[in-house]
Inverse folding.
């Protein structure tokens, strides 16, 4: 009896561990997709993709805030930078007009995603769930 209990506990522990790892993998996939979407929108807005050509520039790339857009300046000129050392190993750089275009594209993308989600929810709500019978305790 004791061996069986230990076996079940071990099996349950392994299942919980594998589910946790799958959840982490799903989060990484979602983050990678979000990064790709951001980089696609930056490119579409006219941001220039710049790759470091020297070890010094590679070190500077690593030191920049990663995967977020920030404002920088060179002399009197202001520009916007997005660094992705782990992904593309590059930065995206653009001016004020390109940043504004990026914001507009990002808003359009978000609106389209929300509309697609709402359409999917409406489709699910319209389904005739009556055929499934009365909901049991597992439904709540």
């Amino acid at each position: 009896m004791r061996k069986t209990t230990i076996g079940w506990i071990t099996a349950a522990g392994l299942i919980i561990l594998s589910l946790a790892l799958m959840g982490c993998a799903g989060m990484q996939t979602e983050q990678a997709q979000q990064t790709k979407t951001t980089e696609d929108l930056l490119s579409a807005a006219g941001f220039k993709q710049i790759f470091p050509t020297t070890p010094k520039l590679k070190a500077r790339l690593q030191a920049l805030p990663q995967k977020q857009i920030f404002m920088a300046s060179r002399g009197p000129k202001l520009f916007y930078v997005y660094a992705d050392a782990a992904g593309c190993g590059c930065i995206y750089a653009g001016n004020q007009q390109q940043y504004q275009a990026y914001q507009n594209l990002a808003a359009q993308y978000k609106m389209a995603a929300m509309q697609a989600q709402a359409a999917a929810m409406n489709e699910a709500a319209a389904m005739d769930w009556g055929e499934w019978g009365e909901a049991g305790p597992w439904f709540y």
